[in-house]
Amino acid sequence: MLLTSPPILQFKSLSLSTPFLHGATTPAAQFFKPSTSSAAAPPSSAVVPVIKAMRSLQGKVVCATNDKTVAVEVTRLAPHPKYKRRVRKKKTYQAHDPANQFQVGDIVQLQKGRPISKNKTFWAVPAPSRDRNKSKDEAAAAASQELGIPLESAS
């Protein structure tokens, strides 16, 4: 095997002077330096998604004596830090009730809104009713009417 030129001579044609080695501006360096040009501004068509965590809660009215304000107790389940069993945690929120329509014991839904006062950022809204008092026969009859076929257990 005969080489036409020594290997060192082949690499002499390559130059090691690049703008990166000499500290010149590179595309990556533009991200770390503030620029005043409008090219660095994000496009106006970019839409940032809205995170809707904690927008609505559901709880029970525990105090309705104040005018246009109700105190709502919200119960949630959280794991115990040591025993890892789920325990009930309760927190009371002040909610705006403009019509004074809620009484103690009502189930309401809290919708988050702009701050109304120092402690009020929620609006009280009637919660969708849940039919817990239906008997099994009524539930089976309603299910058979929805499906359009009689159930075997209902006969």
Describe this structure as you would to a colleague.
The protein has 155 residues and is mainly β. It has helices at residues 7-11, 136-147, and strands at residues 56-63, 69-79, 86-96, 107-112, 120-126. Helices cover 11% and strands 28% of the residues. Strands 1-2-3-5-4 form a 5-stranded mixed barrel. Strand 2 (69-79) and strand 3 form a beta hairpin. The N and C termini lie far apart (96 Å). The model has no long low-confidence stretch (mean pLDDT 77).
How much of the residues is beta strand, in percent?
A: 25-35%
Q: By helix and strand content, what is the structural category?
A: mainly beta
Secondary-structure element order, N to C: HEEEEEH
C-alpha termini separation: 96 Å
- Sum up the overall morphology in one term: extended
What percent of the residues sit in helical stretches (DSSP H or I)? 10-25%
Low-pLDDT residue intervals, each spanning 5 or more residues: none
Number of helices: 2
Give the tally of β-strands: 5
Mean of pLDDT: 77
State the strand order across the main sheet.
1-2-3-5-4
